[in-house]
Amino acid sequence: EVQLQASGGGLVQPGGSLRLSCAASGFTFRSPDMGWFRQAPGKEREFVAAVSWGGGRAYYADSVKGRFIISRDNAKNTVYLQMNSLKPEDTAMYYCSALRQWPATPLPGSWGQGTLVTVSS
């Protein structure tokens, strides 16, 4: 059973930074590409960023490009999302997922619990 637990969210002022973590278990973490997604209130879930299985390739949504950095540590079965220069429109529940197809197709059933990010002054 795939289990993913996101953490690190919170309340931050515009222009601030947060680092999200996603701990994975129940599958061979080294195998799949991984992604971060988010869902704002009243909106559909959207793709944020993806990292390849070895960590050597990354892909970002245009809305976060240049501000967010995705990375992974396969030894710790963890994927990270460093979020800088945060904007109010980044407010959302953030989720990680294994990817079925690069770069933005999540693997069904691999959603874990999300972590809430609120950007507000």
Chain-wise SSE layout:
Blueprint: E1 3-7, E2 10-12, E3 18-25, E4 34-39, E5 46-51, E6 58-60, E7 68-73, E8 78-83, E9 92-101, E10 105-106, E11 115-119
What does the model show?
The structure is a single chain. The chain is an all-beta fold and 121 residues long. Helices cover 0% and strands 50% of the residues. The chain has no helices and eleven strands. The protein has strands at 3-7, 10-12, 18-25, 34-39, 46-51, 58-60, 68-73, 78-83, 92-101, 105-106, 115-119. Strands 2, 4, 5, 6, 9, 10 and 11 form a seven-stranded mixed beta sheet that branches. It is globular.
Number of helices: 0
Chain-averaged pLDDT? 93
Characterize the main sheet: 7 strands, mixed
Terminus-to-terminus distance: 40 Å
How would the global form be characterised?
globular
Low-confidence stretches: none
Q: What order do the SSEs take from the amino end to the carboxyl end, as H and E?
A: EEEEEEEEEEE
Radius of gyration: 13 Å
Q: Give the % helix.
A: under 10%
